[in-house]
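Hello forum,

I keep getting stuck at the same step: I have a sequence, I want structure tokens, and every attempt I make locally crashes halfway through. Rather than fight my setup again tonight, could one of you with a working pipeline run this one for me? It's a single chain of 83 residues.
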Amino acid sequence: MLNIKVLGPGCPNCHKVEENARQAVTMLGTEAKIEKVTDRAEFQKYNLLATPGLVINEKLVSAGRIPSDTEVMIWLADALEAV
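Reply #2:
Ran it on my machine without issues. Output:
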């Protein structure tokens, strides 16, 4: 199972990143745990400089922008292959 974290204060952009991640998971037909992380101290663990951030299996894959669901799907597929 994939572990996905959306890093951010809970702004509309953060919600859009979460929505795109959920759509990508659905389109891939896989299982994932999606977690919202709003604690700024946690952001530092991933060297996140700008929100929103997207972490897949503890790897920061996007920061400071809203990736498309297609981009997220590619990252999730890559993460599944690495497992």
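Strands lie at 2-7, 32-37, 53-56, 59-63. If your local run keeps crashing, start a new thread with the error log.
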